[in-house]
């Protein structure tokens, strides 16, 4: 690894001033949302240039660290914000309005940093909270279900991960990485969180996609990466077996609905950001059409422009209300059961999963319509690379292919017609 050419990266020094500016954490929901908007305002200043330069987002992660947003959900006893998930979702949305890549990175971090809440023991959860929050670590994850599972072997007091993943969001610029695989000779899955900077984690630096260009979501090879049995989340380190509480409920419990709603919230943020960005362009640069027989002096007098903006705005408001309702429902389940998800019933999980599926269907439908439709109300000059309006559609189109939304529609159809709740899988 020492012979690798350096990867072009943004310079974290450009955001040094914000470390002192944001030296204390917000106190309440409104404070956290205000902080997220401040971060978005900073990112918006050069979002177009950074997207086109496509450098590893070292500086942007430093900005998230300075802002305290990585600590939004962490416990106060270690210096976290101890906000509920419904606030975390809104924070993700605010950041994604300015920069979809950084909103996505923040969303994945918040999910992976809380993994032990769902699949870990109380001791593991507390230990990881202290590690992550006190060090202000950024967490990435090599957990792509479409690839073969990482293989896990036992080696004395350690477990050893080997394998590869085509996608590993945020790994290159992470401090810690979530690994997941199957223990050899069994069908049992193990999650563990390890330090990223070690020889056995080898990044290919091959994320060259049309959208979400600053997420470092390329492939990674995992070679003889060791973790202690005490770090096997939800496992008895002495007996080398999953704890009864883990066996009583599928590993997907609330982890998968929680991350699916992370997706929808940065989708929604991207779409709202596109509308806000386009509206500024329309009022300052778009010209009225002079050949329609009903000549207007300003684009804001054009009927078709007013109609499109009004329709987009209404649908985005509806999607936002739906996303907030689903976030409240997930938050209520976390509050009701604390960290004892073994008591969560299949019906409760199924119901919240269908709220989350509904959000995903709606945000993808309206998000793609808005991010492509804004060109109709901004005009041909808005296709200039200098304007950068295309990044919103590229970002949304890239991640909305993560898992086919058609299956969410089918899932909802079976729920409505047959009363079926979805079985926990890697995607439901």
TrEMBL record:
<feature type="domain" description="Acyl-CoA dehydrogenase C-terminal">
    <location>
        <begin position="261"/>
        <end position="402"/>
    </location>
</feature>
<keyword id="KW-0560">Oxidoreductase</keyword>
<dbReference type="InterPro" id="IPR013786">
    <property type="entry name" value="AcylCoA_DH/ox_N"/>
</dbReference>
<dbReference type="InterPro" id="IPR009100">
    <property type="entry name" value="AcylCoA_DH/oxidase_NM_dom_sf"/>
</dbReference>
<dbReference type="GO" id="GO:0006552">
    <property type="term" value="P:L-leucine catabolic process"/>
</dbReference>
<dbReference type="GO" id="GO:0050660">
    <property type="term" value="F:flavin adenine dinucleotide binding"/>
</dbReference>
<dbReference type="Pfam" id="PF08028">
    <property type="entry name" value="Acyl-CoA_dh_2"/>
</dbReference>
<keyword id="KW-0285">Flavoprotein</keyword>
<feature type="domain" description="Acyl-CoA dehydrogenase/oxidase N-terminal">
    <location>
        <begin position="28"/>
        <end position="127"/>
    </location>
</feature>
<dbReference type="InterPro" id="IPR037069">
    <property type="entry name" value="AcylCoA_DH/ox_N_sf"/>
</dbReference>
<dbReference type="InterPro" id="IPR046373">
    <property type="entry name" value="Acyl-CoA_Oxase/DH_mid-dom_sf"/>
</dbReference>
<dbReference type="InterPro" id="IPR013107">
    <property type="entry name" value="Acyl-CoA_DH_C"/>
</dbReference>
<dbReference type="InterPro" id="IPR036250">
    <property type="entry name" value="AcylCo_DH-like_C"/>
</dbReference>
<dbReference type="Pfam" id="PF02771">
    <property type="entry name" value="Acyl-CoA_dh_N"/>
</dbReference>
<dbReference type="GO" id="GO:0008470">
    <property type="term" value="F:3-methylbutanoyl-CoA dehydrogenase activity"/>
</dbReference>
<protein>
    <submittedName>
        <fullName>Thermophilic desulfurizing enzyme family protein</fullName>
    </submittedName>
</protein>
């Amino acid at each position: 690894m020492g012979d690798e050419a350096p990867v072009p990266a943004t310079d974290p020094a450009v955001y040094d001033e914000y470390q002192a500016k944001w030296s204390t954490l917000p106190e309440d929901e409104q404070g956290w949302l205000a902080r997220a908007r401040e971060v978005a305002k900073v990112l918006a200043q050069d979002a177009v240039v950074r997207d086109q330069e496509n450098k590893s987002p070292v500086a942007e992660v430093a900005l998230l660290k300075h802002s305290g947003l990585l600590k939004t959900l962490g416990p106060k006893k270690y210096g976290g914000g101890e906000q509920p998930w419904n606030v975390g979702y809104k924070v993700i949305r605010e950041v994604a309005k300015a920069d979809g890549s950084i909103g996505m990175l923040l969303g994945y971090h918040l999910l992976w940093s809380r993994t032990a809440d769902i699949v870990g023991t109380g001791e593991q959860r507390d230990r990881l909270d202290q590690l992550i929050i006190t060090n202000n670590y950024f967490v990435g994850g090599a957990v792509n279900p479409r690839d073969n599972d990482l293989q896990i072997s036992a080696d004395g007091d350690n477990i050893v991960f080997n394998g590869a993943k085509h996608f590993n969001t945020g790994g290159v610029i992470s401090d810690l990485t979530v690994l997941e695989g199957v223990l050899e000779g069994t069908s049992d899955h193990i999650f563990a969180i390890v330090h990223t900077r070690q020889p056995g984690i080898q990044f290919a630096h091959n994320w060259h996609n049309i959208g979400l260009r600053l997420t470092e979501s390329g492939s990674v090879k995992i070679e003889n990466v060791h973790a202690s049995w005490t770090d096997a989340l939800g496992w008895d380190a002495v007996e080398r077996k999953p704890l009864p509480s883990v066996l009583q409920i599928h590993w997907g419990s609330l982890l998968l609905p929680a991350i699916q709603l992370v997706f929808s919230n940065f989708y929604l943020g991207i779409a709202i950001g596109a509308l806000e960005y386009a509206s500024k362009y329309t009022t300052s640069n778009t010209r009225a059409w002079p050949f329609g027989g009903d000549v207007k002096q300003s684009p804001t007098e054009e009927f078709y422009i007013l109609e499109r903006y009004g329709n987009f705005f209404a649908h985005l408001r509806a999607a936002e209300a739906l996303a907030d309702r689903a976030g409240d429902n997930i938050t209520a389940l976390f509050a009701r059961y604390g960290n004892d998800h073994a008591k969560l019933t299949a019906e409760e999980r199924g119901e919240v999963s269908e709220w989350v599926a509904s959000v995903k269907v709606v945000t993808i439908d309206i998000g793609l319509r808005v991010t492509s439709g804004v060109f109709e109300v901004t005009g041909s000059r808005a296709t200039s690379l200098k304007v950068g309006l295309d990044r919103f559609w590229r970002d949304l189109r890239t991640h909305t292919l993560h898992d086919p939304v058609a299956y969410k529609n089918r899932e909802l159809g079976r729920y409505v017609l047959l009363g079926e709740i979805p079985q926990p899988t890697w995607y439901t």
